[in-house]
Amino acid sequence: MIVYEYPFNELVRSMLRLEYLFARFNHFLRSDDPELHHNAIAILFDLGDIGARGDIKSLLLKEFERQKYSLNGLKSSQKVDQEALLQTIAEIDTAASKINRSMGKPNTIISESEWLNAIRTRLNIPGGTSPIDLPSYYAWKNSPVSERRALLENYITPLLPWYEAGQLFLRLLRQSGEAKDVVGHNGSFQQAPSGKVYQLMRIALEDDSLYSEISANKYLLSIRFLKADRDKKAQLVNVDVPFRLTLCQF
């Protein structure tokens, strides 16, 4: 089952990107291979750029406040597990507090490192990080794995509040949706939002030879399914495609 996700606003888009980048960084960090640690270094710059955006921080804190207000309204409901509710509210408080306490830009330690800046300026040059261009970087890649991992962990630590907050935000958002089985007739599916403002669309496909192209606005949700062909231009399929659709709005 392959799940495709479509964000309806900039905050959700940024949180999905952070999730993707942190997943890759953590995968490379766990390895002992210096070439995979090179990949982790490259991802640090992308994580730092997103984490430094003040507008995303403001949007995330406002969204946590809105979610907390919504959850507080359920405290008197007998249909809700009150222990789980209070735990979720506490998680939101903790995540928001950590984001608030991350004074200044969380990527400062990255942006102010001359060593990292030298690497960053050469990443887009073919072969720019070779031993002849960056001997200090080559020496680091040949240092003990414990030293390499410790350095990476030092650089990522200021960004961890973003990782925790993003994980919580996306978990609550994804849990808010209810999946339903639908069919894309002749490879296409459309649905009117019926006045609802969604934050995230999730599409689950069993056929891994297909992928979805999604567009959406306040009037119409539109999905097209195409055949994955690496050598030719992708073609819209003309058969019915069953899939699971989840529209999320916390």
TrEMBL record:
GO biological process: division septum assembly; FtsZ-dependent cytokinesis
TM stretches of this protein: none
Principal subcellular localization: cytoplasm
Pfam families per UniProt: ZapD (PF07072)
UniProt subcellular location: Cytoplasm
Keyword Disulfide bond: no
Keywords: Cell cycle, Cell division, Cytoplasm, Septation
InterPro entries, alphabetized: ZapD, ZapD_C, ZapD_sf
GO cellular component: cell division site; cytoplasm
Record family assignment: Belongs to the ZapD family.
Descriptive protein name: Cell division protein ZapD
GN (gene name): zapD
